[in-house]
Amino acid sequence: MIEAQVPTAADAAKAAPVNEGGGKKKSYHHGDLRNAIILEATARARESGEKAIVLREIAPRIGVSATAAYRHFANRQQLVDEVSGRGFAAMRDRIAAIEPTTATTDPVLAAYIDLRNAAIAVVGFAVDEPAWARMMLETLGVSSVVAESGMSVREVMQDIVDRGIDEGAFTPGLRLDGQRAMWAAIDGLSAQAMFGVHPMDTESADQAIARTLDLCLTDLLTERAIQARSAVDLPAGIITDARI
Q1: Which pTM value belongs to this model?
Q2: How far apart are CA 160 and CA 116, in angstroms?
C-alpha cells in the first residue's frame, strides 16, 4: 500500500516551539498553536480514535494551558471535525499519488485499472489507519466540514471515471455518487478493517478486496470494458507497472 503523508506524534512535537533550554514555551505565532493542537489531535486519533481527542490532555503535551487551547476551537467537536477532514484529505492525496497504470496498452483496460487502484487505495487507508478511518466515517454524515473534505475523495475518483468515459471504459454520464454497489464494497471492506472484523493486512485479504471490488465495479463498465477485463488475470493490490 502507498503510505499516507499524515502527521505523526513526532510532527506534533516539532510544531511546539522550544526555548533555549530545550523546554517547550507557551509562545506561538498566529495560527501556530491551532496547527500544533490539530497535529497532536491527529496523532492521537491515528492511535486511538476520537476518544483520544481531549483538549485538556493535548494542551500540556504541546506546552500550553487548556484555556489557551480552547481559544482556538468553539468546542471539542470542532477539533474532531478538523481532524476527520484532514483524514479525508490524506485519503485523497493517497489516491492522487498513484501513477496511471502502464500495465497495459489497452486504454479501456487501463481506465478500469486506474479506478480499481483508487478503490483499493481507499480500502487500504482504512487497513493502515483503522482508528482514524472509523472516526472519519462516524463524523461524515453529521459535519459539513467533514462532508466537504470527503467529497474531495469522490471528486478525484470521478476524474478517473470521466477520463475513462472518453476511452469507452465506463458508461456515458456515469456519476459515482449514485453507485451504491461500488460504495457498499468499499465501505464494507473498510469497516472490516476499522472494526477488526477480519485480518485485513494479509495476502488472502488483498485477494478478497480485489475480487470484491472487481465484482462490484462491473455495473460501471461498458461491454467492451467487461470483455477487456475478462481477458486478463488482474493481480490483487495496486497495479501501476507491467504486472499483467
Answers
A1: 0.86
A2: 10
